[in-house]
Design brief:
Elements (H helix, E strand, L loop, with lengths): L1 H38 L6 H18 L3 H19 L6 H13 L5 E3 L10 H13 L11 H14 L9 E4 L2 H12 L5 E6 L4 H8 L3 E6 L10 H7 L4 E6 L12 H13 L3 E5 L21 E6 L12 E5 L1 H15 L4 H10 L5 H20 L12 E5 L7 H10 L2 E5 L9 E5 L4 H14 L4
Parallel strand pairs: 1-10, 3-4, 3-5, 5-6, 6-7
Antiparallel strand pairs: 2-8, 7-8, 9-11, 10-11
Helix pairs in contact: 1-3, 2-3, 5-12, 6-12, 7-8, 7-11, 13-15
The protein binds 4'-deoxy-4'-aminopyridoxal-5'-phosphate.
Length: 455
Protein backbone atom coordinates (compact mmCIF):
# COMPACT_ATOMS: atom_id res chain seq x y z
CA UNK A 1 0.00 0.00 0.00
CA UNK A 2 2.76 2.41 0.95
CA UNK A 3 4.49 1.72 -2.37
CA UNK A 4 1.54 2.90 -4.40
CA UNK A 5 1.13 5.91 -2.12
CA UNK A 6 4.76 6.85 -2.67
CA UNK A 7 4.37 6.55 -6.41
CA UNK A 8 1.19 8.58 -6.32
CA UNK A 9 2.86 11.30 -4.29
CA UNK A 10 5.65 11.38 -6.84
CA UNK A 11 3.08 11.64 -9.64
CA UNK A 12 1.39 14.55 -7.87
CA UNK A 13 4.69 16.32 -7.45
CA UNK A 14 5.56 15.94 -11.14
CA UNK A 15 2.12 17.17 -12.17
CA UNK A 16 2.33 20.23 -9.90
CA UNK A 17 5.80 20.95 -11.24
CA UNK A 18 4.40 20.76 -14.78
CA UNK A 19 1.64 23.23 -13.87
CA UNK A 20 4.26 25.64 -12.49
CA UNK A 21 6.22 25.29 -15.74
CA UNK A 22 3.04 25.88 -17.71
CA UNK A 23 2.51 29.12 -15.79
CA UNK A 24 6.10 30.20 -16.50
CA UNK A 25 5.70 29.28 -20.19
CA UNK A 26 2.42 31.18 -20.49
CA UNK A 27 3.95 34.29 -18.90
CA UNK A 28 6.82 34.23 -21.40
CA UNK A 29 4.32 33.67 -24.25
CA UNK A 30 2.43 36.78 -23.13
CA UNK A 31 5.65 38.81 -23.09
CA UNK A 32 6.54 37.58 -26.56
CA UNK A 33 3.01 38.54 -27.64
CA UNK A 34 3.56 42.12 -26.44
CA UNK A 35 6.87 42.37 -28.31
CA UNK A 36 5.32 40.96 -31.49
CA UNK A 37 2.54 43.52 -31.22
CA UNK A 38 4.97 46.41 -30.76
CA UNK A 39 7.01 45.44 -33.82
CA UNK A 40 3.99 44.43 -35.92
CA UNK A 41 5.00 40.78 -36.22
CA UNK A 42 2.37 38.10 -36.83
CA UNK A 43 1.56 35.66 -34.04
CA UNK A 44 2.44 32.32 -35.62
CA UNK A 45 6.00 31.82 -36.77
CA UNK A 46 6.17 28.47 -38.55
CA UNK A 47 9.97 28.47 -38.70
CA UNK A 48 10.28 28.97 -34.96
CA UNK A 49 7.70 26.26 -34.33
CA UNK A 50 9.53 23.88 -36.68
CA UNK A 51 12.80 24.47 -34.92
CA UNK A 52 11.22 23.75 -31.52
CA UNK A 53 9.50 20.66 -32.98
CA UNK A 54 12.87 19.33 -34.16
CA UNK A 55 14.37 19.88 -30.71
CA UNK A 56 11.47 18.02 -29.09
CA UNK A 57 11.81 15.10 -31.53
CA UNK A 58 15.52 14.90 -30.93
CA UNK A 59 14.94 14.90 -27.16
CA UNK A 60 12.37 12.10 -27.62
CA UNK A 61 15.03 10.04 -29.38
CA UNK A 62 17.41 10.56 -26.47
CA UNK A 63 14.74 9.78 -23.90
CA UNK A 64 13.18 6.89 -25.81
CA UNK A 65 9.82 8.62 -25.60
CA UNK A 66 7.09 8.22 -28.23
CA UNK A 67 7.45 11.33 -30.39
CA UNK A 68 3.78 11.33 -31.45
CA UNK A 69 2.66 11.84 -27.85
CA UNK A 70 5.36 14.41 -27.20
CA UNK A 71 4.56 16.45 -30.30
CA UNK A 72 0.84 16.32 -29.48
CA UNK A 73 1.76 17.78 -26.10
CA UNK A 74 3.89 20.38 -27.89
CA UNK A 75 0.93 21.21 -30.12
CA UNK A 76 -1.17 21.83 -27.02
CA UNK A 77 1.51 24.22 -25.71
CA UNK A 78 1.87 25.99 -29.06
CA UNK A 79 -1.90 26.50 -29.27
CA UNK A 80 -1.96 27.90 -25.74
CA UNK A 81 0.71 30.42 -26.76
CA UNK A 82 -1.39 31.43 -29.75
CA UNK A 83 -4.42 31.87 -27.52
CA UNK A 84 -2.67 34.18 -25.03
CA UNK A 85 -1.09 36.18 -27.85
CA UNK A 86 -4.25 36.64 -29.87
CA UNK A 87 -5.83 39.98 -29.17
CA UNK A 88 -8.64 41.39 -31.23
CA UNK A 89 -7.64 40.45 -34.75
CA UNK A 90 -9.47 42.69 -37.20
CA UNK A 91 -11.21 40.79 -39.94
CA UNK A 92 -13.78 41.59 -42.59
CA UNK A 93 -16.44 40.97 -39.95
CA UNK A 94 -15.09 43.49 -37.45
CA UNK A 95 -14.99 46.13 -40.20
CA UNK A 96 -18.53 45.12 -41.20
CA UNK A 97 -19.80 45.59 -37.63
CA UNK A 98 -18.06 48.97 -37.35
CA UNK A 99 -19.60 50.00 -40.67
CA UNK A 100 -23.04 48.99 -39.40
CA UNK A 101 -22.61 51.14 -36.28
CA UNK A 102 -21.57 54.12 -38.41
CA UNK A 103 -24.62 53.58 -40.62
CA UNK A 104 -26.86 53.64 -37.58
CA UNK A 105 -25.35 57.06 -36.82
CA UNK A 106 -26.40 58.21 -40.29
CA UNK A 107 -23.14 57.75 -42.23
CA UNK A 108 -23.29 56.38 -45.76
CA UNK A 109 -20.98 53.40 -46.24
CA UNK A 110 -20.22 51.41 -49.40
CA UNK A 111 -19.88 47.77 -48.42
CA UNK A 112 -16.99 46.15 -50.22
CA UNK A 113 -15.82 44.20 -47.18
CA UNK A 114 -18.35 41.38 -46.86
CA UNK A 115 -19.04 38.40 -49.07
CA UNK A 116 -22.78 38.78 -49.18
CA UNK A 117 -24.46 39.10 -52.58
CA UNK A 118 -26.63 42.20 -52.82
CA UNK A 119 -29.19 40.47 -55.08
CA UNK A 120 -32.25 38.63 -53.81
CA UNK A 121 -32.75 34.87 -53.58
CA UNK A 122 -34.57 33.30 -56.55
CA UNK A 123 -38.36 33.93 -56.84
CA UNK A 124 -38.98 30.24 -56.15
CA UNK A 125 -37.75 30.93 -52.63
CA UNK A 126 -40.43 33.57 -52.05
CA UNK A 127 -43.14 31.19 -53.19
CA UNK A 128 -41.72 28.39 -51.07
CA UNK A 129 -41.78 30.65 -48.01
CA UNK A 130 -45.43 31.31 -48.71
CA UNK A 131 -46.43 27.69 -49.07
CA UNK A 132 -44.27 25.98 -46.45
CA UNK A 133 -46.79 26.36 -43.62
CA UNK A 134 -49.49 24.53 -45.54
CA UNK A 135 -47.00 21.93 -46.75
CA UNK A 136 -46.49 21.02 -43.11
CA UNK A 137 -42.69 21.02 -42.89
CA UNK A 138 -42.85 22.33 -39.35
CA UNK A 139 -41.55 19.70 -36.96
CA UNK A 140 -38.47 18.17 -35.45
CA UNK A 141 -36.67 15.86 -37.85
CA UNK A 142 -33.54 13.82 -38.50
CA UNK A 143 -30.37 15.63 -37.47
CA UNK A 144 -28.83 14.90 -40.89
CA UNK A 145 -31.71 16.73 -42.55
CA UNK A 146 -35.06 15.78 -44.09
CA UNK A 147 -34.69 12.64 -46.24
CA UNK A 148 -36.65 14.24 -49.09
CA UNK A 149 -34.29 17.23 -49.10
CA UNK A 150 -31.15 15.08 -48.85
CA UNK A 151 -32.46 12.98 -51.71
CA UNK A 152 -32.93 16.15 -53.79
CA UNK A 153 -29.43 17.38 -52.89
CA UNK A 154 -27.90 14.00 -53.78
CA UNK A 155 -29.57 14.13 -57.19
CA UNK A 156 -28.53 17.75 -57.74
CA UNK A 157 -24.92 17.09 -56.72
CA UNK A 158 -24.64 13.90 -58.76
CA UNK A 159 -25.84 15.67 -61.91
CA UNK A 160 -23.93 18.89 -61.38
CA UNK A 161 -20.58 17.35 -60.49
CA UNK A 162 -20.90 14.23 -62.60
CA UNK A 163 -20.55 11.86 -59.68
CA UNK A 164 -22.77 9.46 -57.76
CA UNK A 165 -23.82 10.25 -54.22
CA UNK A 166 -26.90 9.19 -52.27
CA UNK A 167 -28.80 10.86 -49.45
CA UNK A 168 -26.68 8.89 -46.96
CA UNK A 169 -23.70 10.94 -48.15
CA UNK A 170 -25.39 14.23 -47.28
CA UNK A 171 -25.70 16.22 -44.08
CA UNK A 172 -27.74 19.42 -44.07
CA UNK A 173 -26.30 22.13 -41.83
CA UNK A 174 -27.06 25.74 -40.91
CA UNK A 175 -24.61 27.16 -43.45
CA UNK A 176 -21.46 25.51 -44.77
CA UNK A 177 -19.78 26.97 -41.69
CA UNK A 178 -21.40 24.44 -39.41
CA UNK A 179 -20.44 21.48 -41.61
CA UNK A 180 -16.87 22.78 -41.51
CA UNK A 181 -17.07 23.00 -37.73
CA UNK A 182 -18.51 19.49 -37.28
CA UNK A 183 -16.05 17.95 -39.76
CA UNK A 184 -13.00 19.45 -38.05
CA UNK A 185 -14.28 18.82 -34.54
CA UNK A 186 -15.44 15.23 -35.00
CA UNK A 187 -12.70 13.88 -37.28
CA UNK A 188 -9.68 15.33 -35.49
CA UNK A 189 -8.54 15.03 -31.90
CA UNK A 190 -6.72 17.53 -29.71
CA UNK A 191 -3.03 17.59 -30.62
CA UNK A 192 -3.70 16.43 -34.20
CA UNK A 193 -2.53 18.69 -37.02
CA UNK A 194 -4.46 20.24 -39.88
CA UNK A 195 -2.93 21.93 -42.91
CA UNK A 196 -4.40 25.24 -44.05
CA UNK A 197 -3.17 26.99 -47.18
CA UNK A 198 -3.16 30.73 -46.65
CA UNK A 199 -4.55 33.22 -47.45
CA UNK A 200 -7.67 31.53 -46.12
CA UNK A 201 -11.11 32.21 -44.72
CA UNK A 202 -10.32 32.52 -40.99
CA UNK A 203 -12.89 30.04 -39.65
CA UNK A 204 -10.86 26.90 -40.53
CA UNK A 205 -8.09 28.02 -38.21
CA UNK A 206 -10.48 29.26 -35.54
CA UNK A 207 -12.45 25.96 -35.52
CA UNK A 208 -9.20 24.04 -35.11
CA UNK A 209 -7.92 26.26 -32.33
CA UNK A 210 -11.25 25.93 -30.56
CA UNK A 211 -10.93 22.13 -30.64
CA UNK A 212 -7.27 21.99 -29.54
CA UNK A 213 -6.09 21.08 -33.05
CA UNK A 214 -2.81 22.48 -34.31
CA UNK A 215 -2.93 24.36 -37.58
CA UNK A 216 0.09 24.08 -39.87
CA UNK A 217 0.02 26.99 -42.26
CA UNK A 218 1.27 26.85 -45.83
CA UNK A 219 1.81 30.43 -46.83
CA UNK A 220 1.34 31.22 -50.51
CA UNK A 221 2.27 34.46 -52.20
CA UNK A 222 1.00 36.71 -54.93
CA UNK A 223 4.34 36.22 -56.71
CA UNK A 224 3.67 32.44 -56.84
CA UNK A 225 0.15 33.18 -58.10
CA UNK A 226 -1.21 31.82 -54.79
CA UNK A 227 -0.04 28.28 -55.60
CA UNK A 228 1.37 26.13 -52.82
CA UNK A 229 4.24 23.86 -53.81
CA UNK A 230 3.77 20.14 -53.32
CA UNK A 231 7.16 20.14 -51.51
CA UNK A 232 5.88 22.70 -49.01
CA UNK A 233 2.92 20.45 -48.20
CA UNK A 234 5.04 17.28 -48.12
CA UNK A 235 7.44 18.86 -45.65
CA UNK A 236 4.62 19.77 -43.31
CA UNK A 237 3.14 16.28 -43.03
CA UNK A 238 4.07 14.14 -40.02
CA UNK A 239 2.43 11.38 -37.97
CA UNK A 240 0.07 13.89 -36.32
CA UNK A 241 -1.19 15.37 -39.59
CA UNK A 242 -4.80 14.33 -40.13
CA UNK A 243 -6.41 16.81 -42.51
CA UNK A 244 -5.74 19.28 -45.29
CA UNK A 245 -8.21 22.05 -46.05
CA UNK A 246 -8.75 23.20 -49.62
CA UNK A 247 -10.93 26.10 -50.70
CA UNK A 248 -11.09 26.67 -54.43
CA UNK A 249 -12.29 28.95 -55.92
CA UNK A 250 -10.61 30.63 -52.99
CA UNK A 251 -11.72 33.29 -50.58
CA UNK A 252 -9.99 35.79 -50.63
CA UNK A 253 -7.78 35.35 -53.74
CA UNK A 254 -10.27 33.86 -56.24
CA UNK A 255 -7.61 31.29 -57.13
CA UNK A 256 -8.42 27.93 -58.73
CA UNK A 257 -5.52 25.45 -58.55
CA UNK A 258 -4.15 24.06 -61.81
CA UNK A 259 -5.67 20.60 -62.20
CA UNK A 260 -2.30 18.84 -62.04
CA UNK A 261 -1.38 20.49 -58.76
CA UNK A 262 -4.77 19.63 -57.26
CA UNK A 263 -4.35 16.02 -58.46
CA UNK A 264 -0.95 15.89 -56.77
CA UNK A 265 -2.31 17.28 -53.51
CA UNK A 266 -5.07 14.66 -53.44
CA UNK A 267 -2.54 11.93 -54.25
CA UNK A 268 -0.38 13.11 -51.35
CA UNK A 269 -3.40 13.19 -49.06
CA UNK A 270 -4.29 9.62 -50.07
CA UNK A 271 -0.75 8.38 -49.50
CA UNK A 272 -0.79 9.87 -46.02
CA UNK A 273 -4.39 8.94 -45.21
CA UNK A 274 -5.32 12.57 -44.63
CA UNK A 275 -8.86 13.85 -44.61
CA UNK A 276 -9.44 16.41 -47.36
CA UNK A 277 -11.89 19.10 -46.33
CA UNK A 278 -12.77 20.83 -49.58
CA UNK A 279 -14.88 23.95 -49.09
CA UNK A 280 -16.47 24.45 -52.48
CA UNK A 281 -19.05 27.11 -51.71
CA UNK A 282 -17.78 29.35 -54.53
CA UNK A 283 -18.00 26.65 -57.21
CA UNK A 284 -20.94 28.49 -58.77
CA UNK A 285 -18.54 31.37 -59.34
CA UNK A 286 -15.72 29.49 -61.06
CA UNK A 287 -14.61 31.41 -64.14
CA UNK A 288 -12.02 28.97 -65.42
CA UNK A 289 -11.69 25.18 -65.30
CA UNK A 290 -12.48 23.88 -61.88
CA UNK A 291 -12.69 20.31 -60.63
CA UNK A 292 -14.65 19.28 -57.55
CA UNK A 293 -12.83 17.09 -55.04
CA UNK A 294 -15.88 14.83 -55.37
CA UNK A 295 -14.48 13.65 -58.68
CA UNK A 296 -11.60 11.87 -56.93
CA UNK A 297 -13.98 9.50 -55.09
CA UNK A 298 -11.75 9.68 -52.06
CA UNK A 299 -13.40 8.11 -49.02
CA UNK A 300 -11.69 10.57 -46.65
CA UNK A 301 -12.93 13.71 -48.39
CA UNK A 302 -15.58 16.07 -47.07
CA UNK A 303 -17.03 18.64 -49.45
CA UNK A 304 -18.94 21.63 -48.14
CA UNK A 305 -21.52 23.53 -50.13
CA UNK A 306 -23.92 26.33 -49.33
CA UNK A 307 -26.94 28.26 -50.54
CA UNK A 308 -25.40 31.49 -49.17
CA UNK A 309 -23.45 32.65 -52.20
CA UNK A 310 -24.87 30.67 -55.15
CA UNK A 311 -28.51 31.44 -54.26
CA UNK A 312 -27.92 34.68 -52.30
CA UNK A 313 -29.47 33.03 -49.23
CA UNK A 314 -26.96 34.08 -46.56
CA UNK A 315 -29.63 34.89 -43.96
CA UNK A 316 -31.39 31.54 -44.34
CA UNK A 317 -28.34 29.83 -42.87
CA UNK A 318 -28.38 26.70 -44.93
CA UNK A 319 -25.68 24.55 -46.50
CA UNK A 320 -24.56 20.95 -46.56
CA UNK A 321 -21.68 18.53 -46.37
CA UNK A 322 -20.98 15.60 -48.71
CA UNK A 323 -18.90 12.67 -47.49
CA UNK A 324 -18.68 8.96 -46.87
CA UNK A 325 -21.55 7.68 -44.67
CA UNK A 326 -19.21 6.97 -41.73
CA UNK A 327 -18.09 10.58 -41.72
CA UNK A 328 -21.65 11.86 -42.14
CA UNK A 329 -22.75 9.79 -39.11
CA UNK A 330 -20.02 11.34 -36.94
CA UNK A 331 -20.89 14.86 -38.04
CA UNK A 332 -24.61 14.16 -37.52
CA UNK A 333 -24.02 13.12 -33.92
CA UNK A 334 -22.47 16.49 -33.08
CA UNK A 335 -25.12 18.33 -35.07
CA UNK A 336 -27.85 16.51 -33.10
CA UNK A 337 -26.14 17.47 -29.86
CA UNK A 338 -25.81 21.13 -30.84
CA UNK A 339 -29.09 21.86 -32.57
CA UNK A 340 -31.32 18.77 -32.97
CA UNK A 341 -31.87 19.58 -36.65
CA UNK A 342 -31.89 22.47 -39.11
CA UNK A 343 -35.23 24.30 -39.20
CA UNK A 344 -37.65 22.29 -41.37
CA UNK A 345 -39.26 25.28 -43.09
CA UNK A 346 -35.82 26.50 -44.18
CA UNK A 347 -34.91 23.05 -45.46
CA UNK A 348 -38.09 23.01 -47.52
CA UNK A 349 -37.35 26.46 -48.97
CA UNK A 350 -33.77 25.44 -49.86
CA UNK A 351 -35.07 22.24 -51.46
CA UNK A 352 -37.22 24.37 -53.74
CA UNK A 353 -34.27 26.70 -54.40
CA UNK A 354 -32.43 23.75 -55.96
CA UNK A 355 -34.85 24.07 -58.89
CA UNK A 356 -33.84 27.68 -59.59
CA UNK A 357 -31.62 28.73 -62.45
CA UNK A 358 -28.81 30.71 -60.83
CA UNK A 359 -26.76 31.35 -63.95
CA UNK A 360 -27.77 35.03 -63.81
CA UNK A 361 -25.99 35.33 -60.45
CA UNK A 362 -22.90 33.71 -61.94
CA UNK A 363 -22.87 36.14 -64.85
CA UNK A 364 -23.49 39.16 -62.64
CA UNK A 365 -20.57 38.38 -60.34
CA UNK A 366 -18.32 37.54 -63.29
CA UNK A 367 -19.05 40.87 -64.97
CA UNK A 368 -18.45 42.79 -61.77
CA UNK A 369 -15.17 40.99 -61.11
CA UNK A 370 -14.00 41.87 -64.60
CA UNK A 371 -14.90 45.49 -64.04
CA UNK A 372 -13.22 45.50 -60.60
CA UNK A 373 -10.09 43.90 -62.08
CA UNK A 374 -9.92 46.60 -64.71
CA UNK A 375 -10.43 49.40 -62.16
CA UNK A 376 -7.90 47.83 -59.80
CA UNK A 377 -5.38 47.79 -62.63
CA UNK A 378 -6.10 51.40 -63.46
CA UNK A 379 -5.43 52.55 -59.93
CA UNK A 380 -2.24 50.52 -59.72
CA UNK A 381 -3.23 47.75 -57.30
CA UNK A 382 -1.07 44.65 -57.39
CA UNK A 383 -3.17 41.47 -57.67
CA UNK A 384 -3.71 38.24 -59.57
CA UNK A 385 -6.82 38.24 -61.76
CA UNK A 386 -9.27 35.95 -59.92
CA UNK A 387 -10.27 32.62 -61.52
CA UNK A 388 -13.51 32.71 -59.58
CA UNK A 389 -15.26 33.55 -56.27
CA UNK A 390 -16.36 37.14 -55.58
CA UNK A 391 -13.22 38.99 -54.52
CA UNK A 392 -10.02 40.73 -55.45
CA UNK A 393 -7.15 40.36 -53.02
CA UNK A 394 -4.85 43.27 -53.67
CA UNK A 395 -1.51 44.32 -52.35
CA UNK A 396 -0.83 47.95 -51.53
CA UNK A 397 2.88 47.61 -51.40
CA UNK A 398 4.02 50.88 -49.96
CA UNK A 399 6.51 50.38 -47.13
CA UNK A 400 4.85 49.95 -43.74
CA UNK A 401 1.33 49.76 -45.15
CA UNK A 402 -1.06 48.53 -42.50
CA UNK A 403 -4.30 47.12 -43.93
CA UNK A 404 -6.16 47.38 -40.64
CA UNK A 405 -5.32 51.05 -40.22
CA UNK A 406 -6.15 51.65 -43.86
CA UNK A 407 -9.54 49.87 -43.58
CA UNK A 408 -10.40 51.99 -40.55
CA UNK A 409 -9.39 55.21 -42.33
CA UNK A 410 -11.43 54.19 -45.35
CA UNK A 411 -14.50 53.72 -43.15
CA UNK A 412 -14.31 57.41 -42.27
CA UNK A 413 -14.33 58.15 -46.00
CA UNK A 414 -17.42 55.99 -46.50
CA UNK A 415 -15.89 52.80 -47.87
CA UNK A 416 -15.61 49.44 -46.11
CA UNK A 417 -12.87 47.07 -47.29
CA UNK A 418 -11.52 43.95 -45.58
CA UNK A 419 -7.98 44.02 -44.16
CA UNK A 420 -5.71 41.25 -45.48
CA UNK A 421 -4.63 40.34 -41.95
CA UNK A 422 -7.92 38.50 -41.41
CA UNK A 423 -6.79 35.89 -43.96
CA UNK A 424 -3.29 35.25 -42.60
CA UNK A 425 0.01 37.07 -42.59
CA UNK A 426 -1.00 39.60 -45.28
CA UNK A 427 -0.78 42.95 -43.56
CA UNK A 428 -0.27 44.93 -46.76
CA UNK A 429 -3.30 43.46 -48.55
CA UNK A 430 -6.96 44.32 -48.70
CA UNK A 431 -9.87 42.28 -50.02
CA UNK A 432 -12.53 44.01 -52.04
CA UNK A 433 -15.73 42.17 -52.86
CA UNK A 434 -18.00 42.28 -55.87
CA UNK A 435 -21.23 42.20 -53.90
CA UNK A 436 -22.74 45.55 -54.90
CA UNK A 437 -24.08 46.79 -58.20
CA UNK A 438 -21.56 48.18 -60.68
CA UNK A 439 -22.45 51.82 -60.02
CA UNK A 440 -21.77 51.46 -56.30
CA UNK A 441 -18.60 49.46 -56.95
CA UNK A 442 -17.29 52.22 -59.22
CA UNK A 443 -18.07 54.78 -56.52
CA UNK A 444 -16.18 52.59 -54.03
CA UNK A 445 -13.19 52.23 -56.34
CA UNK A 446 -13.11 56.01 -56.81
CA UNK A 447 -12.92 56.50 -53.05
CA UNK A 448 -10.12 53.93 -52.98
CA UNK A 449 -8.23 55.68 -55.76
CA UNK A 450 -8.50 59.05 -54.03
CA UNK A 451 -7.10 57.63 -50.83
CA UNK A 452 -4.40 55.37 -52.04
CA UNK A 453 -2.02 58.29 -51.78
CA UNK A 454 -2.65 58.18 -48.00
CA UNK A 455 -1.77 54.54 -47.73
N1 LIG B 1 -16.56 29.09 -46.62
C1 LIG B 1 -16.06 30.22 -47.13
C2 LIG B 1 -14.81 30.14 -47.93
C3 LIG B 1 -16.71 31.44 -46.93
O1 LIG B 1 -16.20 32.55 -47.47
C4 LIG B 1 -17.91 31.47 -46.16
C5 LIG B 1 -18.67 32.72 -45.86
N2 LIG B 1 -18.13 33.89 -46.16
C6 LIG B 1 -18.38 30.26 -45.64
C7 LIG B 1 -17.69 29.09 -45.90
C8 LIG B 1 -19.63 30.19 -44.81
O2 LIG B 1 -20.75 30.11 -45.57
P1 LIG B 1 -22.18 29.84 -44.96
O3 LIG B 1 -22.92 31.13 -45.03
O4 LIG B 1 -22.76 28.79 -45.82
O5 LIG B 1 -22.00 29.39 -43.55
Amino acid sequence: MSEINDLRNKMDEITLEMVKLLKARTDVAKEIGEVKKSIGKSITDELREDSLRSKVISLCNDLKLDETIATKFLNFLLNESIKVQTSNKQTHLSIFFKAKTLEEQGKKIIHMEVGEPDFLPPDIVKNALNEVFDKGFLKYGQSKGMPVFREAIAKYVSEKFNTHVTQDNIIVSPGARFSIFTAITTLLNPGDEMIVIEPAWPAYKDCALNAGIKVRTIKTTLEQKWEPSIEQIKNTINTNTKMIVLNYPNNPTGKILPEKLQDEIIKLAKENQLYVLSDEIYSQYAKSNWKSVLSYNYEKSIITQSFSKSHAMTGFRIGYGIADTKIIEKMAKLEALCLTNVSEPIQYVAMKALEADTSKNTNTIRRRLEMLSQKSNEIGLNFVIPDGAMYIFAQLDKEGFDGVKFANTMLEKGLAVAPGEGFGDYKNFIRISACQNEEILIEGMNILRENIGDK
